Amino acid sequence: MREMKKHKQFVKSLKIGVGLIALVFVTGFMLWDVNRSDLGANTAGSSSELVIGTDPGFKPFEYKEGSQTVGFDIDLAREIAMDQNKTLRVEEMAFDGLLLALQSGRIDLAVAGMTKTPDRAKNVDFSQAYYSAAQMIIVKKGSEIRSEADLVGKKIGVQLGTTGDILAHKIFKAEVVQLPQTASVMQELNSGRIDAAIMDNGPAMQYLANNPKLEMLPEKLTDEDYAIAIRKGNKKLLQQVNKSLSAMKKDGRYEKLVKKYFGDATK
Fold first, then answer.
1. Domain count of the fold of the chain
2. 80, 154, 167, 250: which one has the fewest Cβ atoms less than 10 Å from its Cβ?
3. Contact 50, 84 (CB under 8 A)
4. Residue 168 domain-assigned?
């Protein structure tokens, strides 16, 4: 009888244990599902919103004007959203976190003066090019640095995760200083804590307008194209973005934006 009683108690305990495990599992799943639903309400794919990720430290493409994020890329994305009868929502983040945010579904598009490169194209899809750019060397006026060859062994400032960052790491014996934004790179150059900077020509020209002690060398380090990054395999959105870009170039909206931010329509 004692052994039978122990057996019954064991079976009862086992049932309770299994029940508790099931309850924990179901509760955990419900919480996960709720969190996933909440995330979905704030992420890409909404029928009424187009969510873009950008890093607003790259004037004139994306920058802060008061509390608002504005710029060429923002206006371009707004036109794309309007073509889809959606409103635009801008998510600000560090440039080197954009592709991860895109892959995780936090954003629909990464619109941030991003160069299409073979390495990036392994993980995301890119739209057609919308702007031609180049990597340039910025130095203090009177600097002994006059070309890429003079950068050997020098201290070079770059924005983290950019093509300028990649280029600088290929220069023999260079000390590369990675900073979160181009404005920070310019501050380091002005202060003399770095010997030179490598950055995109568009933002460089904007900063040079207010920094008379700096200059951009004439040598182009690259010729590259900016494109909009889209989650891999999202063919429908890729087609919509390309359709909008083509339409804007035909109907004058693109030229209008170029004139607004660059003063000409040469790009």
1. 2
2. 250
3. yes
4. yes
